[in-house]
Known about the structure:
Layout: H1 5-10, E1 16-18, H2 28-36, E2 41-44, H3 51-64, E3 69-74, H4 84-93, E4 98-102, H5 110-115, E5 119-124, H6 127-135, E6 140-144, H7 159-169, E7 174-177, H8 183-191, E8 196-199, H9 201-204, H10 213-221, E9 227-230, E10 238-241, H11 244-254, H12 259-262, H13 268-277, H14 300-323
Parallel strand pairs: 1-8, 2-3, 3-4, 4-5, 5-6, 6-7, 7-8
Antiparallel strand pairs: 9-10
Helix pairs in contact: 2-3, 3-4, 6-7, 8-14
Residues 19-23, 25, 44, 72, 74, 102, 123, 144, 147-150, 177-180, 198-202, 204, 286-288, 290 line the site of flavin mononucleotide.
Amino acid sequence: MFKTRLTGLLGIEYPIIQGALGGGLSRAELVSAVSNAGGLGMITSLNHQTTDELREEIRKTKGLTDKPFGVNVTLLPTVRPVNYEEYFAAALEEGVHIIETSGRSPDSYMKMLKDAGAIVMHKVGSARHARTAERVGVDAVSVVSFEAAGHPLPDDVASSVLIPICVDAVKIPVIAAGGIADARGLVSALALGAEGVLMGTRFTVSKECTLHVKAKEWLLQIGEADTMLVHKAINNTERVIKTGFAQRILEMEEGGAPLEEILPLISGDKVREAYNSGDISDALFTVGQVVGLIHDIPSVKEIIDGIISEARNIIRRLQYIDTGANQAATR
Ligand SMILES: Cc1cc2nc3c(=O)[nH]c(=O)nc-3n(C[C@H](O)[C@H](O)[C@H](O)COP(=O)(O)O)c2cc1C
């Protein structure tokens, strides 16, 4: 059960991927725990200031798991100059053959990646971008919908519409990203035609994630309506927790404040500090609407085992609905 083209492509047991987590959150402990539990863990390369640091994290992860894991390279604008090619090269040289890109098309790196035998996944937010990714040779697309943490497209299209549209648009496997934290999310994504799910917010609130426990506990208190979009005005839409600070940033952006004034307030260093101290009221904290479905801080293994066993129950229940064999089981 739960074997899809994606599990075959990546060599994993369950079609569950841990989304890249910037701000220093997806470290070896989390990544290896996801892979050891049968999913695919994902190192986030830009968490590392240098490629040597990235190499070290990859080696540490390899010491904790012999299962496949991936490296994400987020191709978004950064304050410090980044040579992305060096990050790709470091990952490939360290023997990681699953690469995920996000932020913009990986077109210019595809030859390098494919020549090295990499499997390339790319995050997209629309059918148009999914088609482009397929055309440039990407092996699977993660479709990031409106609900998601990180950077959904400013089109504001929810997963129930976006996933099947992308499934219809491309032949390569589609991974549903955004709004998934439990078995219901997995089964519904599979029903929409996706061949796997990618979760960010759920894994942020796990024992192995290095986010300060105060911040995790704060996430347990907030609900599905407590996030908002910022940075639309500067073409870099991001979903964050609705705080006074986030609202002030949004007002500055909509009021046309110059970027030089905004950037120091939202720098990666500030976010990283906040994640480490747990005091996140003065930093933009990206989180998905699915935070409303998260009520505990389990281990990664508990999350994945729980999703898989409950997904089996749901599928059995759906079969009862189909056959009408057991009315009680449908409740
Ligand atoms: C704290 C946090 C940091 C993230 N950082 C990145 C990142 O650096 N690069 C990236 O491609 N996606 C990033 N994401 C997005 C996730 O990888 C994933 O696409 C998203 O969380 C899926 O939506 P969900 O949170 O509803 O599961 C981040 C998400 C969270 C919660």
